[in-house]
Amino acid sequence: MSKLATLKNLLLLLGIVLLLVSFFNPIVANPYPNTCFGAFYGFNSYFFFAAVIILVLAVVLSEEKSEIVESGSKLAEKNQNGKILDLIRNLLEEDEFKIIKLVLENEGITQDSLHFKTGFSQSKISMIIKKLEEKNLIVREKFGKTYKIYTSPWLRNMLEEGNVDYQKDFEKLKNWCEED
Length: 180
Known about the structure:
Elements (H helix, E strand, L loop, with lengths): L2 H22 L1 H4 L15 H34 L4 H9 L2 H12 L3 E2 H8 L3 H13 L3 E6 L2 E6 L1 H9 L4 H13 L2
Antiparallel strand pairs: 1-3, 2-3
Helix pairs in contact: 1-3, 4-9, 5-7
């Protein structure tokens, strides 16, 4: 079970426990038993609102996970179970592959966003993008003071169509990667 799923389950459990405590615990539900306003006069809304916030957070986490799973499955379908990405992973350095994968998932991502998503320094991002652009894997477009990064049209077509002559494309990628 992933850390995100474990966190979601713990948040759901905590939220449900807080809801039950806020409604059924006599000390929390009625801290002033000698009043004439009934059982919910002293209803402690802190537990209730904490439970609601925790449950909403658990739902948001589960939606984010489902979006990640959907985008990953769409990408895997389009590139024949990840064979093309595996080929690219084997030909590129690890940092270059992280960048190309983020660009594939977020077409038109800014160079600044890559900096925040990867944790790499701005200069490292710039050097990696320059290498990938020289290998004709990405295309940069000026966007204000930064750049928007897109995958090159041939790579995007290869991933979308999935009908790939692996030998030919492997040689093409290998030649570009060896041009360093």
